[in-house]
Design brief:
D-Maltodextrin-Binding Protein, domain 2; five-stranded mixed β-sheet; 3 helices; 7 strands; LysR substrate-binding domain-containing protein; LysR_subst-bd
Length: about 140
């Protein structure tokens, strides 16, 4: 497979205003005592998050886990805990959700477009190019904290 990076996005910490947390910057170790909401451990986004915290020897307290990102967003929006919000791909998050940047080293992920190692047909190349343009458009419209 040929993997082309098409999007690099920061992953914020997020919570509903009803949860009562109020920081603009969060140290990874500050999340140890918080109620966390996350995707299932086999999800690629969750794997990225887990690697970030494992590297810092930090174990998070996941109270709720779901396979579906929309379910995770719904639980966040209900105010029962904190989670991780990708800045580009999760733009449908409620305006009541407060975002904070992990510091001193932000959490980021790269999304790749993967295609077979063989030569692409013209239509495959056109589709690949369109997908790249779509991701570039989304990257320019990142969530801001």
């Amino acid at each position: 497979m040929t993997n082309v990076p098409v999007l690099k996005e920061e992953i914020f910490v997020g919570w509903d205003l009803a949860y009562g947390y109020s920081q603009s910057f969060v140290k990874p170790e500050d999340l140890v005592s918080e109620k966390m909401i996350g995707l299932s451990p086999d999800n690629p986004l969750r794997e990225t998050i887990d690697k970030y915290f494992l590297k810092r020897d930090i174990t998070l307290n996941y109270k709720y886990e779901a396979d579906d990102p929309a379910t995770v967003r719904g639980i966040i929006e209900s105010g029962v805990g904190m989670s991780f919000i990708p800045s580009v791909t999760w733009q449908t998050i409620s305006s009541n959700v407060q975002l904070a940047r992990l510091t001193p080293e932000p959490l980021q992920r790269t999304i790749y477009l993967s295609s077979p190692h063989k030569n692409l047909t013209n239509i495959e190349r056109e589709i690949s190019n369109e997908l790249i343009l779509i991701f570039l458009k989304f990257q320019r419209s990142e969530l801001k904290i």
